[in-house]
Design goal:
Elements (H helix, E strand, L loop, with lengths): L2 H16 L5 E7 L6 E7 L3 H9 L16 H17 L1 E2 L13 E2 L1 H14 L7 E7 L5 E9 L2 E6 L2 E6 H4 L5 E3 L6 E3 L1
Parallel strand pairs: 3-4
Antiparallel strand pairs: 1-2, 5-6, 5-9, 6-7, 7-8, 9-10
Helix pairs in contact: 3-4
């Protein structure tokens, strides 16, 4: 194999590993003489999210509070949006990982983006809505929408119409967007 081809394959391999679901780079700093460790963890924003945001800048604007006050009205809005989007999009695996807003069919990321957009239109702070990667019970990579509230984090999932706390959902978050959806951290 010539060196040019080797370089191309090495670059492709590096890009693939950096953009894989849940790929995170961690940097741990210990403070000398302190009982508390400081840990800084940055995760790579999924490449498909970067493409989506480049194409849909208004959908990726970071604004508003990073947490919303839980109320019966907010819970009703969460339930309505979650079940509406779950009914509207037909589940279909992507052949190419292209994230879309309000498609007729799509995968978990398409559900998440559609729910996020609908909640923002309903007045929920964009900063409280986080795109998160986890794994299903069968071990498959999966995206959900996490809503940060005064009563804790709640999960909107295309695999379930009920709204559950993150703890009750059984999911272990691998990576999650910050209030700015173009910046991610390890879960």
């Amino acid at each position: 194999m010539n060196s040019k081809l080797k370089a191309v394959l090495a670059t492709a391999s590096l890009v693939a590993s950096m953009t894989s679901v849940g790929g995170a780079m961690a940097n741990t700093n210990r403070t000398v003489g302190s009982l508390v460790d400081q840990v800084q963890v940055a995760a790579i924003t999924p490449l498909s999210m970067q493409f989506f945001c480049a194409k849909n800048r208004s959908e990726c604007a970071s604004s508003g509070q990073g947490q919303v006050t839980m109320s019966p009205n907010l819970m009703a809005v969460l339930k309505q949006v979650n079940s509406h989007v779950n009914r509207t999009i037909r589940p279909e695996r992507d052949t190419a990982d292209v994230w879309e807003l309000n498609p007729t069919s799509g995968d978990c990321e398409d559900y998440v983006l559609s729910k996020r957009s609908a909640l923002i239109r309903q007045g929920v702070s964009a900063g409280a809505l986080r795109v998160a990667y986890t794994h299903t019970r069968s071990g498959e990579p999966h995206a959900v929408l996490v809503v940060r509230t005064s009563d804790g984090d709640y999960v909107l999932d295309n695999l379930n119409n009920s709204i559950k706390t993150l703890r009750a959902s059984g999911y272990n978050i691998r990576t999650i967007s910050s209030p700015n959806p173009t910046q991610w951290t390890a879960g």
